[in-house]
Amino acid sequence: MTSASAPFLSVQDLSVTFPTEDGRVQAVDGVSFSVERGKTLAVVGESGSGKSVTAQAIMGLLDRRLSSVTGHAWLEGRDLVAMDDDEVRRERGSRMAMIFQDPMSSLHPFYRIGAQLSEAVLVHQKVSKQAAREQALEMLNRVGIPDPRTRIDNYPHQLSGGMRQRVMIAMALINSPALLIADEPTTALDVTVQAQILELIGNLQQEYDTAVIMITHDLGIVADIADDVAVMYGGRIVESGSVDDIFYRPQMPYTLGLLASVPRLDQVRAERLDPIPGNPPSPISLPPGCVFQPRCAYSDRVADHACEGVRPELVDIGGGHAVRCHLDGGQRLAIATDVLDALAGSGA
Amino acid sequence: MIRRLSTYVIRRVLSMILLLVLLSLVVFILFSLLPADPARLTCGKSCTPEIIEANRHRLGLDMPVLAQYWEFVKGIFVGRTYAANSPDPVQCSAPCLGYSFKRGEEVFVLIKDRLPATIWLAFGAFVLWLAAGISLGIYSALRRGRWQDRSVMGVALVGYSLPSFFIGLVAIFFIIIRWQLLPFPSYISPLENPVQFLQTMILPWIILATLYAAFYMRLTRNQMLEVLGDDYIRTARAKGLPERVVIRKHALRAGLTPIVTAAGLDLAGLLGGAIITESIFSLPGIGSLAVNSVNDADLPLIVGITLVAATFIIFANLIVDLLYAVIDPRVRLS
């Protein structure tokens, strides 16, 4: 974050709206963040918080007829949002790649995995089919598929879920992209396989010096692999900073709520989990002020009902740690101390 | 894997043969239960009970049904002779599907002579409606909700709801009679006179294809819309594949299965005779033969046509199933 030159990927004021019959849906609202090569940004939030839509907007995967994307996504100085369909398509799979949540349904059921991998090579590189197959074989080997010479001729349904996610990773990284977006890549997998897949992504990230955006709702994964974290709620980033900022110095009541609702094995006493009351807002009718206000236990501490009427801005409170909240610094610190003490107390 | 596929084929062919045997038996028994007496139909107005009984014996109709069925099956393989002991026996050479005493002709020959017109009609229309239905269906799906989609689907609805005898007659009236753009239809083999053949077939093809194309447009559109929302399509786009490859290679193949099913069965159904279209355009096909045989209560011919039509359907089923295995590896490998 301290490098003087422009960041590798810089997303600025990215917004996505979907016109629907019920009105305009504001799925992503003014999201900004940046990632450097070799670093991992975790985007955290509940379902419907806009994290997947943000990723698809960067990848240019949203249908332009059904959505409107504004803002910028600078990838090494070139704005992905401003590119036309064909330009951004050329970037996809070559300089930026994406893996998805459900490896069971993300591979085409009718084509051999070798064909699906080679296809990714052939669309971006001028090589022979044989050379593409060699690359596919090598990549399968690298992602830890046992006996790749046999497996390359398998169909997806002949592989386990973990193996399929490895194939997806192989396919995403086969053209050595500089940016990898992983949209909940382990959610659909068994717990033991989850760790292997995360380790694999981490190893390949080091090998290729890839920038990774890890979209997840699992704070355990965040703590394991992230360098920086952006917490999203209602289509906006409500808090962002280094992983230490978020875990040790959280300031926004929603982030605190997330941390408090995680089950912890290190607790001595069986404490009840502390879920955040209420439900995420509908993107069709977002609250006019702070999107988290309806569920926030502390909004009455802010004068003049500002949380209900005035939209808070994302404010940098120092060292790249930014918070979107009307509470003043002292109030936030007091609340955070209470919540963290309670968490630590139950574990002490 | 080749081995597994061939085992699959053999298994399917064996079950098809069994199905054919059962089917022919059922058809045979059903028709023997009909109140119509085929022996009574063998002689005209000046008929006496004695002649009827004599004919009944000559035709073997006094045998039990299963014995008759056995004679029938044997006839298919080795041919048979009706009234062998009488002064004028009737030869029916293999494959003998029965003998129409009404028409004084072997059923097999009657059907064989009518088959080319039906086959030409069915395949020509088939190609037309698949080409139009699938391409317009894809076009519509890719422009979902916009005016192009609405107009294609509107036209499809009209094509689907207009009965083919109505558009057929309208077409004949305007195109052939009023504007004289085409000569009156008169079927001839394409080997003899290709121009006259095309002039005769073009309207029936279009009329028949219109009805089916409408259905295939809707089917293809719905399939594409469903498949385009699938995760592996998103993966294909994330790989950076051009949109036309995503559509043709990934989406269309995945959405093809129900289209193949419908196409196989519809084609087979038509090979059993397109009754209305053949009648309107007076094409000498199986469909018009079937209508005539029913009008004449020509039982052996009805049985023959029913069996042939049903055989087409069973064959089509087999081919559709084999195509599934080609399209979807999960079918042949499980």
From TrEMBL, chain A:
Keyword annotations from UniProtKB, A to Z: ATP-binding, Cell membrane, Membrane, Nucleotide-binding, Transport
Domain ABC transporter span(s) in chain numbering: 9-259
Keyword Ubl conjugation set for record: no
Single biological process term from Gene Ontology: peptide transport
Molecular function in Gene Ontology: ATP binding; ATP hydrolysis activity
Membrane-topology annotation of the record: Peripheral membrane protein
Annotated protein name in UniProt: Unannotated protein
GO cellular component, one term: plasma membrane
Keyword Transport (UniProt): yes
InterPro entries listed in its UniProt record: AAA+_ATPase (IPR003593), ABC_Ni/Peptide_Import (IPR050388), ABC_transporter-like_ATP-bd (IPR003439), ABC_transporter-like_CS (IPR017871), Oligopep_ABC_C (IPR013563), P-loop_NTPase (IPR027417)
PANTHER family with a match to the protein in the record: DIPEPTIDE TRANSPORT ATP-BINDING PROTEIN DPPD, OLIGOPEPTIDE TRANSPORT ATP-BINDING PROTEIN APPD
SMART domains: AAA
Compartments, record wording: Cell membrane
Species assigned in the record: freshwater metagenome
Automatic annotation (TrEMBL), chain B:
Predominant place of localization: membrane
GO cellular component terms given for this protein: plasma membrane
Segments passing through the bilayer: 12-34, 119-142, 154-177, 197-215, 256-281, 301-327
GO biological process: transmembrane transport
ABC transmembrane type-1 domain boundaries: 115-324
SUPFAM superfamilies: MetI-like (SSF161098)
Entry keywords, A to Z: Cell membrane, Membrane, Transmembrane, Transmembrane helix, Transport
Organism: freshwater metagenome
Localization, UniProt: Cell membrane
A Pfam family per the record: BPD_transp_1_N
Protein name: Unannotated protein
Keyword Transmembrane among UniProt keywords: yes
Membrane topology, record value: Multi-pass membrane protein
Keyword Cell membrane: yes
